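Sanity check

After download, print the first record. It should look like this:
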Amino acid sequence: MYKAPFIGKIKELQDLNLLQRRKLAALVVIKGRRRIGKSRLIEEFAKGKKFIRFEGVAPTRKTKAQDQRQEFARQVQRQLGIPGLQDVKDWGDLFTIVAEATKKEKVIILFDEITWMGSKDPVFLGKLKVVWDQHFKTNPNLILILCGSLSSWIEKNIISSTGFLGRISLKLTLNELSLQECNKLLEMHGFRGSAQEKFMALALTGGVPWYLEQLNPELPISENIRKLCFEPDGLFVDEFKYIFHDLFGKRLKICKKIVEVLKDGAKDYEEISTAALSKRRPA
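Expected structure tokens:
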């Protein structure tokens, strides 16, 4: 299966490799907006190593905590060959099963989209903390990575949580590619436009790797913009609402109102407060 070339994130990759050489169990937290390359960084780090990945279910209004547990159990059964887990109703039991099954292995375990896994279960992170203390960290060859796109949830519930104080070995926040890295990725992707077209491409994508990869190198940048942003089914048409939700979570509505106020130009605090509040009230 084709994968775009791995560009950038050199320091983050070095930090992960240095961590693995310590011969101590490590808990890693990686956050960053959707499409920024979190999963790709982890896959690059895990290349040639024992790697087990568990992924949360994209939530809907009807998704329940038990749905996440059942999906996690299904993935445990498929990847570790442990049957009969579908009726397990306790995260602590599921985490312990994974820890015991891998306790003698040199392994990287990823909980991908952990915000989806645990956001609807108030004891999820507490159970994970207990099993980390009692089981996971006894394996000196283990790296457990917690990764997600809802950065505000991760910051509040994991990084700033007293429950994980002193337990996190490495925190990584992934950012956009630099201008030089964007240029390299465009050229490796086959984009041969002029310097002005490259500038337009960067203005459109903001250095987000996945966005850059969606550009068709055989089309001029103006045609790419039309197809991606202005056709009814263009990939970027609804991107704003998805990204905004990931970034701000429950603060989505008020943050969106502030952005709407600022789109017409700079304003001071009082002007923003007045305008945002007025937009909340019916005329």
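If your output differs, re-run the checksum step. Summary of this record's structure: The mean pLDDT is 89.
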